[in-house]
Amino acid sequence: MVTDTPILHVDMDAFYASALLRDRPELQDRPVMVGGGHRGVVLAANYPARAYGVRSAMTGTRARRLCPQVVVLQPDYDLFTAVSASVMEVFRRVTPLVEAVSLDEAFLDVRAAGRRAGGPVELGEWIRATVHDEQRIACSVGVAASISVAKLASRRAKPDGLLVVPPDEVTAFLHPLDVGELYGVGDKTRTRLHRLGLVTVGDVAHTPVATLRRDLGHHLGGHLHDLAWGVDVREVSPGRAGVFGHGGPPDRSMGAQETFGRDTDDREVVLRELLRLTAKVTARLRSAAVAGRTVAITVRFADFTTITRSRTLGEATDVTQEVYAAAVRLYDAQGLQRARIRLVGVRVEGLVPRQQVERQGVLGERDRGWADADRAVDRAARRFGSAAVRPASLLGPGAGR
DNA sequence: TCTGGGGTCCTAGGACCC
DNA sequence: TCTGGGGTCCTAGGACCC
């Protein structure tokens, strides 16, 4: 297909809320948010809730203050994953060049699209109609020559719309926008730019790139200057987003973290949580057939300051006890006797395919017993569900008696 | 009841090697 | 005595995205 705007960005509207509301039509027109329970933040809000100022990433407390009558729904990730897979499948009917960014958004390159009906706009409208018919969820589409402009266009098209930005209108579209709209500009960078007097994308575009590099760092400075002129050479790469299991590049790390119900200074409580999180992570490593050399822990204190500590091992591992032992060493090395701890996390980095490790004859030989125990746990989890199997020290007092 | 959980990438300093 | 210059790995922190 010959077109000067071959990139589509498709973004579900209020995805988590929309997915849950499919089966709760009576709530459709009432303000609804997903998540935001004890110590949690809002994961998604439907448009009636947004009318009250409720936004994702806001604390549940704040959201309820803004909208006391808001209906709170619990997230259902199995449902979200299933709906997402169906939606992505719709995209692939248009083109194989689909890059899933997350469960609810994707880039499509329609240059190689078949003869399905017309140009990018027709394809975009077909996707919107089909997703709506088959999945009962509204989505918005941005159409442009590049990934970054398509992404901004879909945001402007919301809710339930489509916006094309032709190449000769890119700067007119971009330059009035606030710098915070640019991909890669979060709260911190936006504030810094504003303090430098750079408020709009046009301001960034007309600042010498050397100045931007000096003030923001070499990479970010150059990147933002490019984006401000709509220069973005990144291609849609279907290999990305390994979460969806489409044979993309393997993940670079896997981790798990959790905020305690209330802050704790009890080493035993912390270690039990580290073991639980480690078991969760290593089970994922094994099911993905990868192992990692670096073990990192995260500790967040009551005042929200957060530290990470990491240690690189001699060889990659997926063995629960090895990762756990490293995590405990890292934790104990901090000497946190009296600290009030809010959250701990465990992450394994530097992942490589397990065969690579096995070929070196290492994995499983060092601690055959522990590796065998892990395999037994994996088998039992497959048969009885993961809730049925966990390390003995995670069982409460009296368990098994 | 202020502030989740899953990630990626960049920067920067020091160690270490050639 | 008067001191290079890269390259890579490791660690810690921070910003960002969804």
TrEMBL record:
It is found in: Cytoplasm. One of its GO terms (molecular function) is DNA-directed DNA polymerase activity. It catalyses: DNA(n) + a 2'-deoxyribonucleoside 5'-triphosphate = DNA(n+1) + diphosphate. It comes from the Bacteria. Its cofactor is Mg(2+). CDD domains: PolY_Pol_IV_kappa. Binds 2 magnesium ions per subunit. It is an enzyme of class 2 (transferase). Signal peptide: none annotated. Residues 7-186 form the UmuC domain. SUPFAM superfamilies: DNA/RNA polymerases, Lesion bypass DNA polymerase (Y-family), little finger domain. Its EC number is 2.7.7.7. Keywords: Cytoplasm, DNA damage, DNA repair, DNA replication, DNA-binding, DNA-directed DNA polymerase, Magnesium, Metal-binding, Mutator protein, Nucleotidyltransferase, Transferase. The record marks Y16 as: Substrate discrimination. Poorly processive, error-prone DNA polymerase involved in untargeted mutagenesis. Copies undamaged DNA at stalled replication forks, which arise in vivo from mismatched or misaligned primer ends. These misaligned primers can be extended by PolIV. Exhibits no 3'-5' exonuclease (proofreading) activity. May be involved in translesional synthesis, in conjunction with the beta clamp from PolIII. This is DNA polymerase IV. It comes from Nocardioides plantarum. The lineage of its organism: Bacteria, Bacillati, Actinomycetota, Actinomycetes, Propionibacteriales.
